[in-house]
Write a structure and sequence with these properties.
Elements lengths: L1 E5 L4 E5 L14 E7 L16 H13 L4 E5 L10 H4 L2 H13 L2 E3 L12 H9 L3 E3 L10 H4 L2 E2 L2 E5 L2 E9 L18 H15 L3 E7 L2 H8 L8 E7 L5 E3 L7 E4 L6 E10 L2 E10 L8 H17 L6 E4 L4 E2 L2 H4 L5 H10 L10 E5 L8 E2 L2 E3 H7 L6 E7 H8 L14 E4 L2 E4 L9 E8 L2 E4 L5 E7 H4 L20 H14 L15 E3 L9
Parallel strand pairs: 3-4, 4-5, 5-6, 6-7, 9-10, 10-11, 11-13, 18-26, 23-27
Antiparallel strand pairs: 1-2, 2-15, 3-14, 8-9, 12-13, 14-15, 16-20, 17-19, 18-22, 21-26, 23-24, 24-25
């Protein structure tokens, strides 16, 4: 098999290296997968312009009308976190996904957020309500409820026509950022579990093997190398990253595909079988206003919206005004400057009153709205920005230790990660070509009328979320001193700042330009940014 990209058509083809006997796209010997991941809302995002299960339902019906056997794959993270999950613990998401499953079978690998609840009660209730298949090969359900525990499928296969497809599924383990829960014990490595299941598929004579994962991209890349020993293993579709990810495949590596969160961009993968093997083509679908939401599904979205407003009738109420559109999209808060995130980080420095802390930062994954805030700022905008509680800590660190700690925010392949820091009181120049842990080229703090490099030996006061202080997202604060107890929940701090600005007749937000820029990527051929 080889893998080539036709960029103009946004079309990716995986073709058999041997001669193939083509089958028609709508023939009985083929299947179409729609893959989505990291979905937290029953409705569309970006003020209704992007994503949403209603548009996915429309795509399913169109493909079925064209004669395709459609299967839906979900790469995990859907029960938490969101404004609604604080009320219903994901019940609304299960109903929405059941609707899709009734249209076309849906196969789901749980993500780390499915296990946010320390008690098994949530997963017990949601599994019992669900009609789709839960897949997992590197962990078990041990909830104490036999019917629920049996719902987790291992070594999962399904038939399409006279062909059999095997799907192995793995989820991020606690040592790599997953939740450690007694009701979901993990065992073995990702590679060991994936290869164990693949070998069983081969023994059973399946026609195609694919992976469904919720792990870091770097882990997917390692799993993809199993294709060298197992040629029927063609591709991985996954989640955990929230922006589109794609790694090309070849004879030694399975292809890797991940979509954008909230079904803003999904993958369509067509598989047609012949005697020589599968012919696979894949392309990205931008889910936007060009796709009309399914009217029947919209009844579900409308139902939950009504329930939400019955419980929280104040949500649409205006609390302030945006000076310009405030960008809370995940593509922004997880990979660069965002005027909404800047405003939030600025409030953190005042969390413990005067004088303000010197420095502050929040991990982009804390900010969950994935949308713009324009004109009126409402209670709902605050509720959707903070999908879970975010308490803050005040501490002291030397400039050198802070720089070392901040390095964790710029590690890995590219941007778009939940650990990306949104900061206040400093600006940073980063070279992604350097090794992890040595990517910060310059870290500067303001002075009277200008900027200067942070003093490695000077003590600075710092505010960060309790989550990152405790090691969340890979940050290390072991060198911090004078650490406060968790206090001052971030969403109430932001709410208070907006209300005070409104009372003073002030609007929220500043334009992004070089004068306000806080995150800089080192330009090619340069040694510094500033």
């Amino acid at each position: 098999m080889h893998f080539r990209t036709l960029q103009a058509a946004t079309l990716i083809l995986l073709m058999c290296g041997c001669a193939t006997q083509n089958t028609t796209a709508g023939g009985p010997d083929g299947v179409t997968f729609l893959h989505l991941n990291d979905t937290y809302r029953v409705e569309a995002v970006e003020e209704g312009r992007r994503g949403g299960f209603g548009r996915v339902a429309t795509l399913v019906r169109e493909l079925q009308a064209a004669g395709r056997d459609v299967r839906i794959l979900h790469g995990g993270d859907f029960l938490y976190p969101s404004l609604e999950s604080q009320l219903w613990n994901g019940e609304q998401m299960v109903e929405a996904m059941n609707f899709l499953d009734a249209l076309a079978p849906m196969y789901v690998v749980p993500g780390n957020h499915e296990f946010d609840s320390r008690s098994p009660d949530t997963i017990i209730a949601r599994v019992r309500e669900s009609e789709f298949d839960w897949l997992g090969d590197n962990f078990d359900f041990i909830t104490g409820e036999v019917d629920v525990d049996k719902r987790l499928r291992t070594g999962f296969t399904f038939s399409s026509g006279n062909r059999t497809v095997g799907i192995f599924a793995v989820t991020v383990q606690p040592e790599h950022g997953g939740n450690r829960r007694q009701y979901t014990p993990f065992s073995g490595s990702y590679i060991e579990n994936a290869e164990r299941v693949i070998e069983q598929f081969e023994a059973d004579g399946v026609d195609l093997i694919i992976g469904l994962t919720h792990v870091h991209l770097a882990t997917d890349i390692e799993i993809a190398k199993l294709k060298r020993r197992h040629p029927k293993f063609e591709f991985i579709v996954g989640g955990h990253e929230h922006e589109v990810q794609h790694e090309t495949g070849d004879v030694a590596n399975a292809a890797i595909m991940k979509g954008a969160s909230n079904a803003r961009t999904i993958w369509r993968i067509d598989v047609n079988f012949s005697d020589s093997g599968p012919e696979i083509s894949a392309r990205l679908i931008k889910v936007d206003e060009s796709i009309e939401p399914d009217p029947e599904y919209q009844l579900i979205a409308g139902k939950w919206r009504t329930k939400l407003l019955e419980l929280m009738p104040f949500l649409p109420s205006r609390i302030g005004e945006a000076a310009l559109p405030l960008d809370g999209r995940e593509v922004s808060v997880r990979g660069g400057d965002s005027n909404w995130a800047m405003f939030i980080a600025d409030q953190m420095r005042t969390a413990f009153r005067d004088p303000p802390a010197d420095l502050a930062f929040v991990n982009g994954g804390t900010l969950r709205i994935d949308d713009y805030i324009a004109e009126d700022i409402t209670f709902e905008d605050i509720g959707r920005t903070f999908g879970f509680s975010s308490y803050l800590r005040y501490m002291t660190m030397t400039g050198g230790d802070f720089r070392d700690t901040l390095e964790a925010g710029y590690r890995g392949n590219g941007l778009g990660k939940g650990y990306f820091p949104q900061g206040s009181g400093f600006r940073v120049c980063v070279d992604q070509g350097r090794p992890n842990g040595r990517r910060i080229v310059q870290l500067q703090v303001p002075t009277d009328g200008g900027w200067q490099d942070i003093d490695a030996d000077k003590d600075y006061s710092i505010v960060a979320t309790d989550y990152v202080y405790r090691g969340g997202d890979g940050y290390d604060f072991t060198t911090a001193t004078n650490v406060s107890r968790p206090a001052s929940e971030l969403k109430y701090l932001v709410l208070d700042a907006i209300i005070r600005a409104q009372a003073a007749g002030e609007k929220i937000g500043k334009p992004l330009n070089t004068a306000t820029q806080r995150f800089w990527l080192l330009p090619a051929g340069k040694n510094t940014c500033f």
